[in-house]
From TrEMBL:
Residues 454-704 form the Cysteine protease StiP N-terminal domain. The keyword Cytoplasm does not apply. The lineage of its organism: Bacteria, Bacillati, Actinomycetota, Actinomycetes, Kitasatosporales. It comes from Streptomyces leeuwenhoekii. GO terms for molecular function: glycosyltransferase activity. The keyword Ribonucleoprotein does not apply. This is Phosphoribosyltransferase.
Length: 827
C-alpha cells in the first residue's frame, strides 16, 4: 500500500500528497513510512524532490526526545549487530550538514564510540584527513578534520551515518576514499530510511566484494520513490510557478525586520571550557560525559530566560551545529512544562507551500552568518513562521555569531518578526590547539564579573584577573616611590592608597564630565567605527585594565547602539617591564580567534604600553606558537601619535582619568607579585566594595552613552574622514618626552608622563615634582591645578608644549625630598 493511501485511511493528510499529485511521484514501502517522511520540491537543478524527514530535526520542528530517540535506537541496533567487542572499537562518522546530530545520537547509542562528522567549514591550522563529494547536493564538498588523525586510522568498524540512503553514491564515495588511506575489515552504513531503487539495491554488496570488506546496512524503514521520466523539468516548472514574486508572503521570507529591531537577549550557557561544540574535530566518550554533567544547569539557564507562560518553545540549531542544541532541547523538554520542539537552519533551498499536504509550509530566508568558505548566500529556517511558537532560542556557535546574524535582514530579525520572544545562546566554536603548543594547564578560570567582582553589570566586561581583595597591598605613596626608584620593588607589586576626592574635586569631575561627554561620545563612536571597518566585523574587545576598561565598555555600548552588535569584552592586565598576562592570552586564544581580538586603552602618552604590548605578543608567539594577535591598540585619544586606531589625537580631559577605582568599577590597578601570582594564574586586582557609596563608574558610562544619538551623524563623517586619511604613527610624543627629559635633567624617561590622563595619574599615585602646562590651556586643567595645589606642586606654563600638560615625577626620589607637611619640595 502506498503512503498516501495509508495516511488517508487514518484520516490524516500526508505531507507528501501535494508533490505526489502534481508530479506523479509515488512513495511506497514499510508500514509507517509516512510518519517518517513527507515530500517537498527542491530549488536545485540536480534533483526535483526532497524527502523531508519528520524525525531528523532539520526541516520539521519535532519533539527533541523523538529526534534523539530515533538516532539512539539505531545506535543500539548497530551495537547488537557488531557485538560488544567490535562495538568497543567502532568510530562513527556523520554527514554534514543534515546528519551531524544523527551521527552523534547513533554514537551515543553505541555507548563507547567516538564521533566525527564531515564539515563544509575549513578550519585554519587543522589538516585534512580526507574529503569527498556529494554529487546531488547544492553544496558538495565535505572535509574530514579530526583533531587526532588516528581517529580514522584504527582497525575497528567505521559506522557511516546519513539521514537517508538513496542512491548510495555518497556513502560509497566516502568508503572508497577512506579505505584507500585507512583500510579496515568492516563498515556499517546507518540511515533513518533506505530509499534505494531496485537497480541500486545490489550495488552495496558488489562494492563490498570489490574492496574486500564487509558492509552492513541498518535503517529504521525502507521504501522506494518512483519518479516519472520528466520529473526534473516538471519540478522546475512547478517551483517557478509557485515561487513568490516577493519575499514578503507567508510562504516566503516573512516581513523583514526594520533597522530599529529590538536587540535579542543573550543566554549565557556557561558552556564547559574546552568542550567541543560538536564532532567537527572529533567528540569522544569523555567529551560526552562532560556534556551530560553540564546539561541540566545549561538547560536551566535557558528555562530561566523563557517568558512567563510560554507554552510552545522552539530550540533552533544552526546548520552543522545540531547535536548540542538537540541535547539542550531534550533536557529542556524534560524539565519544563512547555511543549518543546527542535529544528535547525539549513543551506538547502526548498520551495515553501502553505498547504497541509506539503512538508515545508513556511520559509524564513536570511544571509549566511558564519563566513562560509563558499562565500555569501541564502540560508533558511523552515516551518518556524506561523507554527505558533511563543519563544525561539537560537543556538549558534561563536563562529556564526557575526554581524550578519544580528543584521536587520539576519536570522534573529527574521525570527523576531514571527515569534514574540527570541533568545540567543552561543556555544564556543572549538578549534584544536596547534600540535606544537607547549604543555600548559588545561583549565583556566572563567572571567570574574560583577556584582561579585566590580560594580559593572556582568555582561559589560569579564575580568581575566584573580581576586586579591582580601590581601593588604596598599602602601603609602612615598614608600612606594622610594622602593620603585631604588629598584627595590616594581610598581605592580603594591598598590597606592586609594585617593578619596574632596567635595571641591568631585564637583570638578562632574563639571568636566558635563562639558566633555559629547566630545567623549564622538571619540568613542569614531574609534569603534574604525575598529569595525578595519579590524573585524565582530571584534573581541580586550581592554587593558584598568584605564582601558571604561573605554571598552563604551565601545561595546556604541556597537550595540549603532549596529545591534553584542560584542564580547574582557579586561586583562599589562605591566610595564613585565608584559601582558600570558595566561589571559591563552584563555582568549582557546575561546576566540586571535585575529578578532582588539586591545583597547584610554589614551596614549609617550607610547610605552604600545611598545610593551608589541614586545609581549612577539614573546607569546615564540613561547606558545599562537599567532594572530595584533599589537595595535585602539584608544580614545592618541596625543602621542603612537597608534593608527583612535577617536581623536587631541589631548583633552577624559574624566575617567580624574579618579581611581571609583570611576573604574571599584577595581584597583593590577598586581603582579611572585608570592601571589603563580605561573598558571591570572594577574591580580582588588575589588573595593567598601567604596560603593562613592562609586561613579556607571554614572560616567551613562553620561557618555546618553550623547550617542546626538553625535551619530558627526561620528559617521569623522570616521569616514579618518578611514581615508594617513594615520601612521609619528611617535611625536616619544620625541617630546626625550626632549623634556634632557631639558629638565631627568635621567629616566619613565618619570616623564605626558598628557592630561598621565599627569592626573602622577598627582594621584606618585610623588610629583612639577607640572608642565601648555600656555593658554583652559578648563581641561582645572582638576590638575586643584590637585597640584593640594600637593604643593608647581605648575609651569610652557609655550611650545605638544601636550596639554606633562607630569614630572620627582627624580631620584627619597622620603627626604618631602617637607614636614608631606608635600613635595620644589628645590
Amino acid at each position: 500500500m502506498d503512503e498516501e493511501a495509508r495516511a488517508g485511511r487514518r484520516g490524516e493528510v500526508w505531507t507528501g500528497s501535494w508533490v505526489a499529485e502534481r508530479l506523479g511521484v509515488e512513495l511506497t514501502g514499510d508500514e509507517g513510512l509516512t510518519d517518517l517522511l513527507g515530500l517537498a520540491l527542491r530549488r536545485n537543478p540536480k534533483r526535483a524532490h526532497l524527502l523531508v524527514s519528520n524525525v531528523l530535526g532539520k526541516h520539521v520542528p519535532q519533539s527533541p526526545s523523538v529526534v534523539y530517540g530515533h538516532g539512539f535506537a539505531l545506535g543500539r541496533r548497530v551495537r547488537e549487530l557488531l557485538g560488544a567487542e567490535e562495538a568497543g572499537t567502532a568510530v562513527v562518522l556523520g554527514y554534514a550538514e543534515t546528519a551531524t546530530g544523527l551521527g552523534h545520537s547513533v554514537a551515543d547509542g553505541l555507548g563507547t564510540a567516538p564521533c566525527l562528522h564531515s564539515t563544509r567549514r575549513p578550519v585554519a591550522g587543522v589538516a585534512r584527513a580526507g574529503g569527498f563529494e556529494e554529487s546531488h547536493s547544492h553544496a558538495t564538498s565535505h572535509l574530514l578534520l579530526p583533531e587526532d588523525p588516528a581517529l580514522l586510522a584504527g582497525p575497528g568498524p567505521l559506522v557511516l551515518v546519513d539521514d537517508e540512503f538513496s542512491t548510495g553514491n555518497t556513502v560509497l564515495n566516502t568508503i572508497r576514499a577512506l579505505h584507500e588511506r585507512y583500510p579496515r575489515k568492516r563498515y556499517v552504513v546507518v540511515a533513518l530510511v533506505d530509499m534505494r531503487s531496485p537497480a541500486d539495491t545490489g550495488r552495496l554488496g558488489d562494492f563490498a566484494r570489490e574492496i574486500g570488506a564487509r558492509v552492513d546496512l541498518v535503517t529504521s524503514a525502507s521504501g522506494t520513490v518512483r519518479l516519472p521520466a520528466d520529473v526534473l523539468a516538471a519540478g522546475q516548472r512547478l517551483v517557478a510557478r509557485h515561487e513568490p514574486a516577493t519575499p514578503g508572503t507567508r510562504h516566503g521570507a516573512g516581513a523583514p525586520a526594520g533597522p530599529a529591531a529590538r536587540p535579542v537577549p543573550r543566554i549565557d550557557l556557561r558552556w564547559p571550557p574546552g568542550l567541543p561544540d560538536g564532532g567537527r574535530h572529533g567528540f569522544t566518550p569523555a567529551h560526552r560525559a562532560r556534556l551530560e554533567s553540564a546539561l541540566p544547569a545549561m538547560a536551566a539557564r535557558i528555562a530561566d530566560a523563557l517568558p512567563d507562560g510560554a507554552r510552545r518553545v522552539l530550540v533552533l540549531g544552526c546548520e552543522e551545529l545540531m547535536y548540542a542544541p538537540l541535547r539542550l532541547a531534550c533536557e529542556l523538554e524534560r524539565t519544563v512544562g512547555a511543549e518543546v520542539r527542535y529544528s535547525t537552519t539549513t543551506r538547502s533551498p526548498v520551495l515553501a507551500v502553505d498547504d497541509p499536504g506539503y512538508a515545508i509550509r513556511t520559509r524564513l530566508v536570511f544571509p549566511a552568518h558564519d563566513d562560509p568558505a563558499d562565500g555569501p548566500g541564502e540560508r533558511y529556517a523552515y516551518n518556524v513562521a506561523g507554527a505558533g511558537f511563543d519563544a525561539v532560542v537560537a543556538v549558534v556557535d561563536s563562529a556564526a555569531d557575526t554581524p550578519a546574524l544580528h543584521a536587520p535582514d539576519g536570522l534573529l530579525a527574521q525570527l523576531a518578526a514571527h515569534v514574540p520572544h527570541v533568545g540567543l545562546a552561543v556555544v564556543p566554536s572549538y578549534v584544536p590547539a596547534p600540535p606544537h603548543a607547549p604543555e600548559r594547564p588545561t583549565m583556566l578560570p572563567e572571567p570574574l564579573r560583577g556584582p561579585a567582582f566590580s560594580s559593572y553589570a556582568p555582561d559589560e566586561v569579564g575580568w581575566l584577573l584573580q581576586d586579591l581583595s582580601d590581601v593588604t597591598l596598599e602602601a603609602p605613596t612615598e614608600e612606594r616611590e622610594e622602593a620603585i626608584q631604588s629598584g627595590g620593588a616594581h610598581y605592580a607589586e603594591s598598590l597606592p592608597v586609594e585617593y578619596q576626592p574632596s567635595e571641591q574635586y568631585q564637583e570638578l569631575f562632574h563639571a568636566a564630565l558635563r562639558e566633555s561627554a559629547t566630545r567623549l561620545a564622538q571619540a568613542v563612536g569614531t574609534v569603534t567605527e574604525i575598529v569595525l571597518a578595519e579590524r573585524s566585523p565582530r571584534p573581541v574587545l580586550v581592554s587593558l585594565a584598568r584605564a582601558g576598561t571604561p573605554v571598552g565598555i563604551l565601545m561595546r555600548r556604541w556597537a550595540r547602539f549603532r549596529h545591534g552588535l553584542d560584542l564580547p569584552h574582557y579586561a586583562v592586565s599589562i605591566v610595564r617591564g613585565r608584559g601582558i598576562d600570558a595566561n589571559a592570552l591563552r584563555w582568549l586564544a582557546d575561546r576566540h580567534d586571535p585575529a578578532d581580538v582588539v586591545f583597547v586603552d584610554g589614551w596614549t602618552g609617550k607610547g610605552a604600553i604600545t611598545r610593551e604590548l608589541a614586545a609581549a605578543l612577539r614573546d607569546f608567539e615564540t613561547s606558545d606558537g599562537v599567532t594572530g594577535f595584533s599589537p595595535e591598540i585602539a584608544v580614545l585619544a592618541d596625543p602621542g601619535s603612537c597608534v593608527r586606531t583612535y577617536g581623536t589625537r587631541e589631548d583633552f580631559l577624559i574624566p575617567s582619568a580624574c579618579l581611581n577605582s571609583t570611576v573604574s568599577g571599584l577595581i584597583s590597578r593590577t598586581v603582579l607579585r611572585a608570592d601571589l601570582v603563580g605561573p598558571h594564574d591570572f594577574h591580580g586586582a582588588k575589588f573595593y566594595r567598601e567604596l560603593a557609596g562613592a562609586d561613579l563608574s556607571v554614572a560616567f558610562l551613562d553620561a557618555v552613552s546618553a550623547r550617542f544619538t546626538e553625535v551619530a551623524d558627526t561620528v559617521a563623517t569623522r570616521a569616514g574622514e579618518l578611514l581615508g586619511a594617513d594615520r601612521e604613527p609619528t611617535w611625536a610624543g616619544w620625541a617630546a618626552v626625550e626632549r623634556i627629559s634632557e631639558e629638565y635633567g631627568i635621567p629616566d624617561v619613565n618619570l616623564v608622563k605626558p598628557g592630561v590622563g598621565e599627569t592626573t595619574r602622577v598627582l594621584l599615585r606618585r610623588v610629583p615634582w612639577k607640572i608642565l602646562a601648555r600656555a593658554g590651556a583652559g578648563s581641561d586643567l582645572d582638576h590638575v591645578r586643584l590637585l597640584a595645589d593640594q600637593r604643593g606642586v608647581p605648575v609651569e606654563e610652557v609655550a611650545d608644549l605638544p601636550y596639554t600638560c606633562v607630569g614630572l615625577i620627582h627624580p631620584q626620589y627619597t622620603r627626604g625630598a618631602t617637607g614636614a607637611d608631606g608635600k613635595a619640595v620644589t628645590a
